[in-house]
Structure formats: structure tokens, C-alpha cells
Amino acid sequence: MLYNAYSHKLSKSRKDTLSYLNVMVVGSVGSGKTAFVRTFCETLKHDVIQGSFKESKPMVLKDPLRPTDELYTVSMHIEENGRRTALTIIDTPGFTTGYAVDHQLRYIAKYIDYQFERTLAEESKVKRDAKALDTHIHSCLYFIDIKNMQAMSEADKYILKMLSTRVNIIPVIGKSDTLTVAQREQIKSVFRREIFDILQIPIYGYIDVEDDDNVSASQQPHQMGRMLHMLKECVEEDKDEDASALIDYLHSMPFTLVGYEEDPDTGRPLNLANITTNSSRLLDEDEEMASPVTPKRTNSRMNSKNVLGRRYPWAVVECCNPTHCDFSQLKNTLLSTHRDMLRLDTFERFYEQYRTEQLLNRKVKRMIRVDSKAGVPLV
């Protein structure tokens, strides 16, 4: 991948029968994590291969929405454009405050490391299992704190620094229907500036671009600007599709998300299709009266049998409407445009880093045992 200086990519001609994608969801209590998981799974239900859907906790997606008290997983095989993906979503308990954050963060870090350990143990066998599952966490969706729109919270900075050494962090903004357009753009701008230009935390998409020796320090562009400039050069010179996808990603993140409104008794999404269709019809009639020559709008979402969204007195906010939030763009990022890059980066960077550290630790321990048996004093 470009941002990790890898010279090779996944072969475009390679046809894997099944690709694994494991996505973890992390954030503070009440940030909208679980609502996103339910909405994401609901949008995929028509793509799920029959018999492949599994939950680690029974009825975890069907009971009324409540805070997540323990980690659970939802797994399924989906097929899009002829490509099959074994998708697993891992929802985690929300971060609280104070010293408890350290304990919660260590638990998540151990869970991520354990998946690497499983691969390392399999690789150490004389006879490996050719059908071993890929349980690596390929992406971690981090729901940022939006209470303060002027700056990132100290908790977010601390957590992102910790997790970015282990997993691809993709930042998102939950419950974005509570924000105005101006507030969303402000939060995005503040986040990108602090993450890339000030803190330089290597979340997914970060590229360590060196300063230009021909430009004085005061005139050096910001890190975000250097990253985009390098990617644009790759697109212009090599027609690099991965670089183009990264440019789109950097301009969009953190992604704004909206979870569907649920029935308080069943936890299932409310059917907003009729409400949305009626609202659309009234709007179309008003437009036609104002301008008879203007053709009526057509919107496939309005005519669908089930519209996922939230109803307010003044409008219906649709989860999958790109003019309302970035849900569809994030879904496409995970399942299509960045899927292979996330998988490759996880193996080439994070797993290899873990593997190297573990092998070095084992070597040191063996040396200590040999020295102790030989009677060599330990310093």
C-alpha cells in the first residue's frame, strides 16, 4: 500500500473463493456503536448467503436496543458483484470515564493481539491447516466524541494512539443527525487537523511524507496537504486506483453515520417507507405547481418497501441517503474500495510487527534460560 511504502499489492487476477473481513466497533458509551451495527446488518440482509448468519449471543440484534455490556460478534457470508466475503462484526462495550478506560482499552488490545497469536501458533505447526480462518481485526471503526466541536477529547487522543499501533482505525461520527451541516464539517476539519498535522497519529490513511528539502520549514505544507499531493501524483503518473480511493477516503473521513429508528418493543426498524413516500409526493406536487415544465423527481429509496432512517417533525433522515450522511460511502469503503487494502495492511504491517516482537521475546527468554543454567549471572 502507498501509505506504508509497500511496493506490491494484492494481485488483481487472484480469485479467492472467500475473503475474510473482520470489523471491530469501538467508542464511548452512547456514541451510536450498536445502532450502527444493527443498521449495517439490516442493509446487508438481502446479500447474506442462506445459512451463514451467526450471532455469538442469541437475539442480540433483535432485542430492544440497550448499552453493550460485553463483547459479541455477528458473522455472515455475503456476495456482492460475484465476490464472496466472510464478514464478522465485533461490537464492544462502550468506554466510560476515568481509570476504567485503561482497563477497557487493555481488554480490546488483548483481543486484537490474540487474533495475531492464533495465526502465529498456526504458522509454527509442522503441518498447517490450509483452511485456517483469518480472525485478524482488519478495521476498527472508532466513534469519536463530539461533545466538544473545537478540539478532540483527551480520551480520544489517548485511545487512538494506543489502538493505531495494532489495527487500522477508521474514525466515524455516530448520531450525526443531531448535528447541522456546518457542525459536521467543523468536526471533520478539527479532527483531520489534529490527527494528521498536530498529533500525527497513524490511523488508516496516514502517510508519513518527508518534508521538502527545497522549501523552508515555515513554508512547508501541512501533513494532510503533503499526503494528498503525493497521492495525486500517483494517480496522475500511474493511474493508481488505490491512491484515488485513498484521496476520496481522506476527503470524507471521519464518516458521518445515522442509525435507524427502532420499535421500542421489538428492536426492529420502524417502517418509514409510507411516511417518506408521502412526504416526497407532497414535495413533488409543490415543485410541479411552481414549475410545470420540470419533470417529477424519482427516487428509488422513496419507493422501496422499507426505508431505514429516523423520523422528525420536519423531515425523515435516511440512513442510506448520501445527502443525509456517509453511511453508504463507509459501507462501500469496507466492502469494496478498501477491503483488500485493509486486509493487506493488517497482515503486512500489524501482524508482521506482532510476529517480530513475539519471536524476539522468545529468543531473549531462551537466552536467559541458557545463561541461568550455565551459571552466568544476570545483570
Automatic annotation (TrEMBL):
Task: Report the residue ranges that make up the Septin-type G domain in this protein.
Answer: 17-361
Instruction: Kindly indicate whether the keyword Ribosomal protein belongs to this entry.
Output: no
- The name this protein carries in UniProt is Septin-type G domain-containing protein
The organism sits in which domain of life? Eukaryota
Q: What Pfam families is this protein classified in?
A: Septin
Q: Which family does it belong to?
A: Belongs to the TRAFAC class TrmE-Era-EngA-EngB-Septin-like GTPase superfamily. Septin GTPase family.
UniProt entry keywords in alphabetical sequence: GTP-binding, Nucleotide-binding
MF annotations from Gene Ontology: GTP binding
**Xref: PROSITE patterns:** G_SEPTIN (PS51719)
Q: Which PANTHER family match?
A: SEPTIN
InterPro entries with a match to the protein in the record: G_SEPTIN_dom (IPR030379), P-loop_NTPase (IPR027417)
